[in-house]
């Protein structure tokens, strides 16, 4: 272990992403997992988690003992984690999706005191895709219709995925649109012809699909398809850990993965 390793707390440590974070972090000498936080009444409380046997706790006060907290929990828990991290001066990385407007405001408030990076997807490939989608949307202009397809495992509880929404916002930015004004979330029955100012979403849930996203830009006589397929959940954990290393020591503010990748910060 490095003498200057960044200390990390994981909130949601017993979940799918938390488990992967513990696994991936064990091989890094630049990070040290110091706290593994699980939900209250979790069956994992008191158990040793991950290769390094971190004892699981439901005590959120453990956040105050680390340099960065990585949150993959629930929307309500995420907002509470942000409040506690801000109070303790601890940087925060979160991949929790499905946040409502009030919960986003809580993160905005926290980011006045700490560096906070929220991402719907920590895959480097997906974040490069976001950039390409914005460029393609701007390049085609209104000559191309935009549709976004996403597929995930059957246990995913929110739809469309946070990543699909991220890609939709990128497409909307390319045309100076507000996604909420132009999104079509589903089609059924006699819908009439497609509007020009429309971004459509389609969702598939099944089996153990890790994640797939395709943005279709359909113009007269040609179609551009921009696709990312994830085959290993470890890519998300590696991206989140990379974000934690990068965020430590940054000034207070809201950050995105594009800041990490393209130096926009």
From TrEMBL:
Homotetramer. Residues 125-261 form the Dihydrodipicolinate reductase C-terminal domain. Transmembrane segments: none annotated. NAD(+) binds at residues 12-17, 95-97, 119-122. The active site is at 152 (proton donor/acceptor), 156 (proton donor). Pfam families: DapB_C, DapB_N. This is 4-hydroxy-tetrahydrodipicolinate reductase. It catalyses: (S)-2,3,4,5-tetrahydrodipicolinate + NADP(+) + H2O = (2S,4S)-4-hydroxy-2,3,4,5-tetrahydrodipicolinate + NADPH + H(+); (S)-2,3,4,5-tetrahydrodipicolinate + NAD(+) + H2O = (2S,4S)-4-hydroxy-2,3,4,5-tetrahydrodipicolinate + NADH + H(+). Keywords: Amino-acid biosynthesis, Cytoplasm, Diaminopimelate biosynthesis, Lysine biosynthesis, NAD, NADP, Oxidoreductase. The gene is dapB. InterPro entries: DapB_C, DapB_N, DapB_N_CS, DHDPR_bac, NAD(P)-bd_dom_sf. PANTHER family: 4-HYDROXY-TETRAHYDRODIPICOLINATE REDUCTASE 1, CHLOROPLASTIC-RELATED, DIHYDRODIPICOLINATE REDUCTASE. Signal peptide: none annotated. SUPFAM superfamilies: Glyceraldehyde-3-phosphate dehydrogenase-like, C-terminal domain (SSF55347), NAD(P)-binding Rossmann-fold domains (SSF51735). Belongs to the DapB family. It is found in: Cytoplasm. Its EC number is 1.17.1.8.
């Amino acid at each position: 272990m490095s003498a200057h390793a960044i200390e990390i707390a994981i909130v949601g440590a017993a979940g799918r992403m938390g488990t992967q974070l513990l696994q991936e972090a064990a091989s890094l000498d630049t990070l040290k997992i110091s706290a593994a936080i699980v939900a209250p009444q979790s069956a994992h409380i008191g158990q040793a988690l991950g290769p390094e046997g971190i004892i699981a706790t439901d005590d959120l006060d453990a956040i105050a003992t680390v340099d960065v907290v990585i949150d993959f929990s629930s929307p309500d828990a995420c907002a509470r984690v942000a409040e506690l991290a801000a109070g303790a001066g601890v940087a925060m990385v979160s991949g929790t999706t499905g946040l409502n407007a009030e919960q986003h405001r809580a993160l905005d408030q926290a980011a006045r005191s700490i560096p906070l990076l929220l991402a719907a997807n920590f895959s480097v490939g997906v974040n490069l895709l976001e950039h390409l989608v914005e460029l393609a949307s701007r390049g085609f202009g209104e000559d191309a219709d935009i549709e976004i397809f996403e597929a995930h495992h059957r246990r995913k509880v929110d739809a469309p995925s946070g990543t699909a929404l991220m890609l939709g916002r990128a497409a909307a930015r390319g045309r100076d649109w507000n996604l909420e004004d132009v999104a079509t979330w589903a089609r059924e029955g006699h819908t009439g012809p497609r509007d020009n100012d429309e971004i459509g979403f389609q969702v598939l849930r099944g089996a153990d699909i890790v994640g797939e996203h395709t943005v279709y830009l359909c113009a007269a006589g040609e179609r551009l398809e921009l696709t990312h397929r994830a085959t290993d959940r470890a890519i998300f954990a590696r991206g989140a850990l990379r974000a934690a290393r990068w965020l430590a020591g940054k000034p207070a503010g809201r950050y995105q993965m594009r800041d990490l990748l393209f130096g926009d910060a």
